[in-house]
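anyone seen this seq b4? input:
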Amino acid sequence: MPSAVHEAVFASLHVAFVCFFHSIPYPFMALNVNVLCNAEASSSNPTIPDLRVSFQTMTNFKKTVYVLIIGETAFSQYWRALRVKFKRTIRLNPELLMVIMAVVEECTQYRSPKKKSYTTNMLREKSPRSSDSFNAATGTLPALCNPVVVEGHTWCSIRSVRFKVWVRGAGPIDINTKNSDLVASGTLYPVEDMAAVYAMIQKGAQLAREKLISLSQKHDPHIDIEAMRAPLFILRSDAIITNIAGAMSETAHRRYMAWYEEHHTPKAAKMASDAMLIASDAAQAARFDSNEGPAFHMSLRPRTKCACGSQGHASPSRSCAQVTPDESPAFHMSLRPRTKHGGGTRGRAPPNRSSAPLRR
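predicted toks r here
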């Protein structure tokens, strides 16, 4: 599951695009404009970006979907792997108008507390701390410059937040381009330098609007184009910073809970859980369909002693005149083939004499 920090980066961008397209007077019944989070890039591309903007025609049987903008965050992962994902997505969706990449780096790669550390000793409690209790122990307000430190351990920290944006030119987006008209990069934190990034995002938003106008004109050639071009695309950097800073505490508590559950689950509970799993597997394995059943039936019967002095009979011989109890051993165990009654009933020992004849 993606962390809260991972999701927070595009939360403000999601709001900005939703407000932007909602303010454009396009034919709402003819076109379906979607600004989605964690949806597949397209039906032919299973990649799931953090942000996806798409238009869908609603007036023909094809129901064509145009995926125009995608955004993805690299948090606690190598950004090079994200570039590879982008290249594949662009190859499968050549009509993309804009790709936005955000890279969030931590001060140090996260590590859970060591077994015999001060943190482990202090947090060895009967029950886990709530989010409020855990984060209150930091003694600091949410901010990108304030790492989440509880009981001497850093649970989440942010070193930098950087963006890179590509837009479409005459052909499909080229991730390797160095053309300043088609790509821009900048830093949001620790020193904000986002002018070029915001300008490129504005450019991509305008390209998406023009695509929306073109599709709208096919539905209504007399649509008011000037009215559609009037709304502004507004993105606030302080909103992005606030979202990430707030998500740091959530990510820190999730990491703490994962560590607590791994190291503080009572052994008895683990054993009980394992026993339940084993019993469940055994029960499932023992199931049989209507044409199969256990090969044998096991029964326990009192062991007897013949009057003739012979021992070891499972049951007395008819030639013996008398049967007397034998004290040791107390019972005799026998395995007999399990059979099936004429009525189809299974799970019994050989049928009684009063039962219907056996059916083979």
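The mean pLDDT is 79. The CA atoms of residues 8 and 244 lie 5 Å apart. kinda curious what u guys think
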